[in-house]
């Protein structure tokens, strides 16, 4: 059981091993039982996906108490280490179901053929007996479990209809119903299992062993025994067993299995690599940064499995309506028997029509229509390096009509370069050179994670400058930083920093410095002032200018979004407006919100939601966490190595491929269309058959074919999403 704390509540997602039945009533009873457990705030139990999601107060209850709470409910909570064994069991059960379907078909055909050929009655009834036993086995178990919990479901409907057909001398119709019902159930389980196996197959891509360097020699070690800090060797053609950083060698790595990138990525010392990807060329020595269970591919698999247990809104609605709907079908069936009999109709024909009506009105296709599509969409996204953190977010992606982008690292490449270093004429230190100014700035910026700071430090390293240690470092979000270097306080910041943080101080050289900033920004560069404070006096030393490169596929991605009918596209940035507008014009963005502080980005997203209702926010998942959480749909890029991205966003793009953003919205829209088609097929078949039965009547076999046929069609239609490529 994995527990992810989110104070003051904790959430655990667990695998459920079912014992003794398939009915959903057991899931509801377990859910209600857990809800009544002290400290439990919310529960979602799904036997379809074999999981439960429990939100609880850790100060009131514990993981062990939750285990005890289900001991008498015909289920057991499994550890995640049992997932592989559970998968083997699931496949074995599917094979058994398929065998039962085959025996049901054999028995039905034997009974029908023997009756046609006037064969021995014993053989005919033996054939039908086989069909009824094997065709009704799982349905009867589910019906019994349902009744134990004082509820009804579709299993009970089908068993009653089959027994009813047998009771009026129509054994073939009942056998045919059980055959098609068991066949459709088997196809449903196959569809759901395939969507889950599409993700589980990723773990099979990771090798079981690694070639670890020990005392200068290569030693074969199981990956579970490899520790963080160990160095292993990967040769061309080998799969990389664990996440790590390249320490020696150069090559290209195929990361398609994790990030969906179609082009191999060059790797050199200092670059991050991920377990399960393929080293295409060059021998690499890699230092382990995460153990096997913490790797990016393991987290992807775990989070997709958790996402599959999160029901989409449409599915939650259908689940709520299932119980009253089934009760309504029983009431309609009873009325279809009682009213004609009261009016003098003969019993056999009346009962036959009522059984036909019961079969036709059953909502099997309606219930499977949503999970078949949503689970396939989640699995399809996972294989493309796109992680939906729940079925709800798949449906949300279909409704997005406005998208907001962070600029740096999202629309731009994020590899900001220092382009200009200027020393102000007339500074108190007349010997200060460009290298001296850069050295001072790098000393301060070495303590910062901002992209401009990293560019400053890189430039100092490229020039092989000596950089002193800084003390008393302080950062003002979205404005600037300061620290003590060589006993004097150095300030580095934008216009807002000097006008607000140092607004009360008299600053020598501020006006010419701000004028120079304006000129640099007019050239499309981001610039900052560097000033030194000594004995209460502040003097501008100079300024630094930076530039960032727009991603080459950004404009194409924006065009793809417009083809998906996205109405409004916005860029949010803390950068100055001129730089932001230049980039916006280059890629075709509608609106620019510049010079924003982190809290102002949140306010901007809130305002966009008021204007457009459904807004997606795209960022890097680190600096944009509040805005991602505020948007209708938060999309984080480059999540393969970013824990914050995995925790914050609703959708995580494991790689940095901008084309995956239209893919997310396109998959959501395709899923919505599939759901609409599935529900239209399901309700249309029910309405057509019920209306025909009431007005004219149809044979029971035709109702069976219509009912089970629509169930099979919606299952297969949902599976088509597994092949969606955008």
DSSP helix fraction: 40-55%
**Would you count the extended β strands for me?**
28
Q: In percent terms, what proportion of residues is strand?
A: 15-25%
Low-confidence stretches are: 1-8, 17-25, 76-86
> Can you tell me the overall shape?
elongated
GO molecular function, one term: ATP hydrolysis activity
Membrane topology: Multi-pass membrane protein
Family: Belongs to the cation transport ATPase (P-type) (TC 3.A.3) family. Type IB subfamily.
Keywords: ATP-binding, Cell membrane, Ion transport, Magnesium, Membrane, Metal-binding, Nucleotide-binding, Translocase, Transmembrane, Transmembrane helix, Transport
Brief summary of the model shown:
With 726 residues, this protein is an alpha+beta fold. It has 24 helices and 28 strands.
Description:
Residues 10-78 form the HMA domain. With 726 residues, the chain is an alpha+beta fold. The strands form five sheets. The chain has a seven-stranded mixed β-sheet with strand order 15-28-27-26-16-24-25, with helices on both faces. Strands 17, 18, 19, 20, 21, 22 and 23 form a seven-stranded mixed β-sheet that branches. Strands 7-6-8-14-9-12 form a six-stranded antiparallel β-sheet, with no helix packed on it. The protein is elongated, with a radius of gyration of 32 Å. The relative contact order is 0.09.
């Amino acid at each position: 059981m994995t527990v992810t704390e989110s104070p003051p509540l904790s959430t655990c997602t667990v695998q459920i091993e079912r014992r003794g039945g398939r009915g959903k009533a057991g899931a509801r009873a377990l859910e209600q039982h857990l809800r009544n457990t002290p400290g439990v705030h919310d529960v979602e139990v799904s036997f379809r996906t074999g999981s439960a999601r429990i939100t609880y107060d850790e100060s009131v209850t514990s993981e062990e108490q939750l285990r005890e709470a289900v001991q008498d409910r015909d289920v057991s909570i499994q550890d995640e280490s049992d997932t592989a064994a559970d998968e083997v069991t699931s496949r074995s059960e599917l094979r058994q179901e398929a065998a039962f379907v085959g025996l049901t078909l054999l028995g039905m055909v034997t009974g029908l053929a023997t009756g046609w050929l006037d064969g021995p009655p014993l053989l005919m009834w033996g054939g039908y007996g086989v069909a009824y036993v094997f065709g009704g086995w799982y349905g009867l178990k589910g019906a019994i479990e349902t009744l134990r919990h004082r509820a009804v479901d579709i299993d009970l409907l089908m068993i009653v209809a089959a027994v009813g057909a047998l009771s009026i001398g129509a054994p073939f119709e009942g056998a045919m119903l059980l055959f098609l019902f068991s066949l459709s159930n088997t196809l449903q389980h196959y569809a759901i299992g395939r969507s889950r196996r599409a993700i589980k197959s990723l773990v099979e891509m990771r090798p079981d062993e690694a070639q670890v360097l020990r005392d200068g020699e290569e030693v074969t070690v199981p990956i579970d025994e490899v520790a963080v800090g160990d160095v292993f060797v990967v040769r061309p053609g080998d799969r990389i067993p664990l996440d790590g950083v390249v320490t020696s060698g150069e090559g290209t790595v195929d990361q398609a299995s994790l990030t969906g990138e179609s082009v191999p990525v060059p790797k050199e010392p200092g670059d991050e690599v991920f377990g399960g990807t393929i080293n295409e060329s060059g021998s690499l020595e890699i230092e382990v940064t995460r153990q096997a269970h913490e790797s990016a591919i393991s987290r992807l698999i775990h989070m997709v499995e958790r996402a599959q247990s999160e029901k989409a809104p449409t599915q939650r609605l259908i689940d709520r309506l299932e119980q009253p709907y089934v009760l309504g079908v029983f009431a309609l069936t009873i009325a279809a028997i009682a009213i004609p009999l009261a009016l003098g109709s003969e019993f056999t024909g009346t009962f036959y029509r009522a059984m036909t009506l019961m079969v036709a009105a059953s909502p099997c296709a309606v219930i499977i229509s949503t999970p078949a599509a949503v689970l396939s969409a989640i699995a399809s996204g996972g294989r493309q390096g796109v992680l939906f953190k729940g079925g709800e977010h798949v449906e949300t992606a279909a409704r997005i009509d406005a998208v907001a982008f962070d600029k740096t690292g999202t629309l731009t490449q994020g590899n900001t370069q220092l382009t200009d270093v200027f020393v102000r004429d007339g500074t108190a230190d007349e010997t200060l050179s460009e290298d001296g100014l850069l050295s001072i700035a790098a000393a301060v910026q070495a303590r910062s994670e901002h992209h401009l700071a990293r560019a400053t430090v890189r430039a100092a390293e490229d020039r092989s400058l000596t950089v002193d240690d800084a003390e008393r470092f302080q950062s003002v979000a979205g404005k600037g930083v300061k620290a003590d270097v060589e006993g004097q306080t150095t300030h580095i910041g934008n216009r807002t920093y000097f006008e607000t943080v140092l607004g009360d101080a008299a600053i020598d050289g501020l006006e010419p410095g701000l004028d120079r900033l304006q000129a640099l920004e007019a050239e499309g560069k981001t610039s900052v002032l560097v000033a030194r404070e000594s004995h209460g006096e502040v003097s501008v030393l100079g300024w630094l200018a930076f530039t960032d490169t727009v991603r080459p596929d950004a404009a194409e991605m924006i065009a793809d979004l417009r083809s998906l009918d996205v109405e409004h596209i916005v860029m949010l940035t803390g950068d100055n407006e001129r730089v932001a507008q230049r980039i916006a014009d280059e890629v075709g963005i509608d609106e620019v919100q510049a010079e924003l502080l982190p809290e102002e980005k949140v306010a901007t997203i809130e305002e966009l939601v008021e204007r457009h209702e459904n807004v997606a926010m795209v960022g890097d998942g680190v600096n944009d966490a509040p805005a991602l959480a505020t948007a209708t749909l938060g999309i984080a890029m480059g999540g393969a190595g970013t824990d914050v991205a995995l925790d914050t966003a609703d959708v995580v793009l494991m790689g940095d491929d901008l084309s995956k953003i239209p893919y997310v919205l396109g998959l959501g829209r395709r899923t919505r269309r599939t759901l609409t088609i599935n529900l239209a097929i399901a309700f249309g078949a029910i309405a057509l058959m019920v209306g025909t039965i009431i007005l004219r009547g149809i044979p029971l076999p035709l109702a069976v074919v219509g009912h089970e046929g629509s169930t099979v069609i919606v299952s297969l239609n949902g599976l088509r999403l597994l092949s969606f490529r955008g």
